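Researcher: For the record, we're logging two predictions in this thread. I'll number them. Prediction 1 follows.
Model: Prediction 1, sequence and structure:
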Amino acid sequence: MSSFEDQYFDDPVEDSRGPVKKKLSSALAFLLLLVGGSYLIQTTFAANIGLNSGRPVEFGQGILTTTACSGSTNLSVTPNSTFVNSAGAGAFYFSSVRVSNIPSSCNGSDFTINAYGESSSTPLALFDSTSTSAVAYNNNGTFELGVGTLTGASISSGSGTFTITFTNPVALSSSVFKLTIQSSLHTESGSTGIAWTSRSSAANISWNSVTYGNGTFVAVAGSGTGNRVMTSPDGITWTSRASAADNTWYSVTYGNGLFVAVANSGVGNRVMTSPDGITWTSRTSAADNSWFSVTYGNGTFVAVAASGTGNRVMTSTNGITWTSRTSAADNDWYSVTYGNGTFVAVAISGTGNRVMTSPDGITWTSRTSAADIGWYSVTYGNGTFVAVSYTGTGNRVMTSPNGITWTSRTSVADNQWLSVTYGNGLFVAVSNTGVGNRVMTSPDGITWTARTSAADNAWYSVTYGNGTFVAVSYSGTGNRVMTSTP
């Protein structure tokens, strides 16, 4: 088999390919197809792209190209192979593809990757036997799986880069001669967040919070003995994990390569951290307050509490060492989120000041909520902050473009809405009350539609990751998790 250096190039450019990786037994030539069928490959690096001349480029080579959304910025596309052993032989399969150097101009776009054989115009199946497209959604700089790739693959997201890995790759490397990458406007799934399926939690205990990070869903509980954490790669199959202590863990988040959970009980150990969701270490909170929520943004972890005097906020740059901060008021702060350069917290108590905002998690300013009701959860997505409440009449949702000015919205029912999240172009909220309507969804936070939860459990938290919404509950028998995936 020929090496990369054996290829013919017309005036090749030095050092544009990046480091050459270990050569594999199969090769790949690249045809970089762009939106609308136009070829925007720049002449400065066109010499480094093989166009199926019969001497294909090997897997592991980084190839530079542009797409419509990237303008003059060169993206690097790197396919990789995995050897799968079998009786008598074995084979290399096209197992993953990495795209990097993606500019912010591509925010909101889908990237669709296909592979082709030597001459056929029909794309090869890449995974799940028949799936021919790998789609990554650029959700404002965070890369998620897109429609058509929500099962059978996983994605890792970094700054301006993503890697899609096929769970069970089916395209032989020796069969792949061309790759295409296309950018287009994001396509939302028609069923994610709408249809829900019951799943078995690792134990029937009070699951209070769930998050997603580094390819793993992690949930924490307020009850149980030695099993107050559970993890899952897909939201379906869950495994019990031991928390650092049997505290009442109320919230968990992920940031900077670390899972961080906070509790409203415990002595000197109301924080715990984990690099993988499996092994947890106790950390000392800034005070033994009733910590109800933690988030990550702008290089900082921020937690808020429902108790304490002048110290109902704490911050940490590493999740390990925490510093007390003064909240805008000593309200019962139940939720905090980060978006658009601003931390926003909401409370279930206070008069005319049940919202506070901060640019850094340190200095906080009181804001007026749309109503003085029990604001239990807040999230950010698609340029909008959305909060939900467990009290109120016809006004249990409020929205804000900046966290400062809030507007009342009508929820689908006056249920006790305890959690809201955003993903796949959709806001999803869950409740612990209601009959057949404990989920509601909205594309904009303003107009909401009732959805049927998998069971009328006390749903306490919902998150989104890897193309899947996952909710957890503190009631139910063998069904304290539900998921929504196309």
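Researcher: Logged. Prediction 2.
Model: Prediction 2, sequence and structure:
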Amino acid sequence: MMHILGPQVAAAVFSDRDKADEAWGILSDAGIPSAIITDPGLLGKYELSVMVERENLEKAQELLARLVTPED
């Protein structure tokens, strides 16, 4: 099924690659398929979005809540 905004949504967004990788690992261990998408952003500042299927969003955000900080 295709949604207007696409089948995947960002469960978390990070500026640190290690945190994004850790998030991917947590989701992988929980059996939630995910992908890390890099957005180059403006002026050299980039963001890393951890993408999941819409139906997994709530569970993914619960699992990743401890990794998300105000500076992300």
